[in-house]
Amino acid sequence: METPDFKIFTTVAQLPDSWDHVAHENAFLQTPYLKVLEESAPTNMQCFYIGIFEKEILIGVALSQYLNLNQLESFGERDRCLKTYIRNFVFKNFASHVLFLGNNMITGQNGYAFLKDIDPKHICDLLTACADEIILYFKKQHIKIHIVSFKDFYQKCADEMKRFDFAQMYEFNTQPNMIFELPADWKTNEDYTAAFSKKYRDQYKRAHKKFEGITTRELPLEEIISREERIYELYYHVAKNAPFNTFFLAKNHFSVFKKQCKDRFVLCGYFLNDTLVGFHTLLLNGNVLETYFLGYDEHIQKQKMLYLNMLYQMTQYGIEHRFEKIIFGRTALEIKSSIGAEPIEMSGFIYHTNKWIDKLMSKIFPKLEPDLVWQQRHPFK
User: CA-to-CA distance for 356 and 340, rounded, in angstroms?
Assistant: First the structure.
């Protein structure tokens, strides 16, 4: 096989006509979603779209994102402790310019797609060459990239990558991806709840009772636009209280997403006395249901067990629309396991462009990660 070559694009309009054909199995690499990033990416993010060619024919596509953490007002406000202050100081001063090969906004192996099987060594060579090219792009603008991260590989793929160039990088495992594989014989929500053990059926009933008075419905584009301020307010409350952030969404992100992806993007609103008190979002990605960002009123969340009910609602949607699995992503691991999702470990690879700091990465990186203590739940009989 002739060694593939690549070309880096900075706008979606530049992409080859066959781009979506190559990316047909992953909505997060297709042009409607890339247009969402182009029109409403976080203000501290710049995206690069990578075309991979063989004999001038497009055979692969990939995504890269640059983040300037100096433009971020907060890394997350939930954990106020010495370790958090140290972590924030280090990020601001030694890791503020970060290049991701992959998508830092979502969880899962969504960084690249190929039309044909590509040897892992070629993939490693291509990704590292793309990183070098983008580093040079920023160097010409007098911006020094501090950290390069190749993110979210499932374990089998990570093991293959470690046989080649990635073996020289620090491999990290952050919080697992919570994935719910839906049994093929579940066709209704009653099938789902019947599978619970008594303890978790009682939890479902208790949450359902607390939920009384809340109405839910899918919002069309016009309503997402008219409620944009409130939607963002609910999102921002949840985002800023996360243990760690590298970006905040643009205010128009959800309306742009609906405009570009249409019926494949679902924003479900939660109402109490006609007041929007929460929302969740979904992306229909082939036979996979991808959960996206959500938001809620903290006071209503406590009264109505809103977050747990959102998880149940998303699960019901997945079952009734015959998806094979639901990607619930990272964070809130214990409560997600209580509704049936299971942890799937994912690896990333990272290096610092300063060779002296890079040698210490195995000692520095674990100290920067928020502590993770949780107990996996097993809700089914």
Answer: 44
